[in-house]
Design a protein that fits this description.
Layout: H1 26-41, E1 46-48, E2 58-61, E3 74-84, E4 88-95, E5 98-108, E6 110-116, E7 122-128, H2 129-142, H3 153-172
Amino acid sequence: MTTRPILIHPDPRLKTVADTVREIDDSVRRLADDMLQTMYEAPGIGLAAPQVGVLQRMLVMDCVKEDSAPPRPMVLINPEIIWSSEETNIYEEGCLSIPEQYADVERPAEVKVRWISLDGTEEEEHFGGLWATCVQHEIDHLNGRLFIDYLKPLRRQMITRKMQKLKRERTRA
């Protein structure tokens, strides 16, 4: 497993709609392992393939927060939301591609998602709470959308300027 570099906003790949995964082969399994390693190391609770520069419809997540609970790493290939609740939740979201920036985002409180697992079987699960927020956030990445796209333009521009400055500082270092 390899930790992959995470793209920082603004990067055109983060605004690109990802391609459908056509075949689950060793390269897809290796990408899944690398993405889980990268997500845990960051540390984060979700990561989409475009965030590591791979424009494919795949995400990983693990929203288990309790130290006593075993981790629940999930790999979702070609995920799609097939149902969303009318009821919404507001969570303070952050993003590994927009480090140290957080904002309240309103999303459906519950969603049902269908995807293909690494063994090629079709899966479906009903998510609520943090899991629902995370899976929606990551699916947004697959559609070229960032959590800051939900914010008012002034706040979004302010965060984008901070990220541009951060990228300049990192290239100088």
